[in-house]
What we know:
2 copies of one chain form a homodimer.
Chain A: E1 4-8, E2 26-30, H1 32-39, E3 46-49, H2 56-65, E4 69-71, H3 80-92, E5 96-100, H4 107-114, E6 129-132, E7 136-149, E8 156-161, E9 169-171, E10 187-191, E11 197-212
Parallel strand pairs in A: 1-2, 1-5, 2-3, 3-4, 5-6
Antiparallel strand pairs in A: 6-7, 7-11, 8-10, 8-11, 9-11
Amino acid sequence: xxxxxxxxxxxxxxxxxxxxxxxxxxxxxxxxxxxxxxxxxxxxxxxxxxxxxxxxxxxxxxxxxxxxxxxxxxxxxxxxxxxxxxxxxxxxxxxxxxxxxxxxxxxxxxxxxxxxxxxxxxxxxxxxxxxxxxxxxxxxxxxxxxxxxxxxxxxxxxxxxxxxxxxxxxxxxxxxxxxxxxxxxxxxxxxxxxxxxxxxxxxxxxxxxxxxxx
Amino acid sequence: xxxxxxxxxxxxxxxxxxxxxxxxxxxxxxxxxxxxxxxxxxxxxxxxxxxxxxxxxxxxxxxxxxxxxxxxxxxxxxxxxxxxxxxxxxxxxxxxxxxxxxxxxxxxxxxxxxxxxxxxxxxxxxxxxxxxxxxxxxxxxxxxxxxxxxxxxxxxxxxxxxxxxxxxxxxxxxxxxxxxxxxxxxxxxxxxxxxxxxxxxxxxxxxxxxxxxx
Lengths: 214, 214
């Protein structure tokens, strides 16, 4: 069975997307994200962050109701999201790390999250990470060959180089490319599936794949 | 006098930020963005896009009321935003290019915009571009030394490497750095001004500076 961790960040506005929880899944709440989960009646396995976005009473509730909690200094080198992803990986060694509530707030936080793929310490886990949102779903790939399923409710597909890429080929899409080399991060956006899946491959670089509902 | 162009993109939700128009400024409306401007009573100098997000009647209104319009095929290689920025530059040769309504919708469009800095054809103009939003303001810099004013209503400051950077030094901020070299795009986020301006410099790479209201 695939082991999965769901990480709810504490962005100002909660996306309407619901966690698709299965038995055995772990749930991590980050800062205000922990509170949002508890308020929704979701059990929190680990609450983590500096908790400077919640009141003292809210923090009490989190420590009382979460199975485990870790509080860090506000003036740390890492963001709450970086700490949460590192801890989730260390604690649960999951096959998949779903991250929610990652967009819609501060742009520096958003870029910090998307640019995790550049940090050597996350290199081994970037393919596990999936940023989920009702309108946008983002996954990351290192060089290799892949099968990608079309997600329901999603209309557009984008292949976004987070780095220069070598030998990118895509099939099953409206605008395929064949052994494309790029000298810088290129955004191949507004593509669409022509069947229920796409196959793609590349030999160098880091690729983001984004499915969007339009 | 500084010549300025305001580009309103056609993102699904209009940010509450109002254009700060001065006499002589030019206004470019992109696709549905042109309609939003006209509906707000703003004169549109140039309407541009494939206009596949507006109805036939709305398109008629745009062609009737905009001073000039350019319609492109929907299946072009460039995004509407790329075309708008290229045309605005070619047509008006402005000192500043303000872009509005660039976030909050599709993540592939957002990355396409932020990654314009990597495209050789935009290399000469990236320092003119400013992505404006009530919560997030983004500007870009090539190697050099700069004075950066604190913007009112903004609380946080981030220095985000869009590439590896060499010799980044920052002053006037809570967490300064001194001749920092990075091997990959590093996001130095959640910084704050300690005075009314910051000075920063670096010798290689492309840097994004983000001011956020929190």
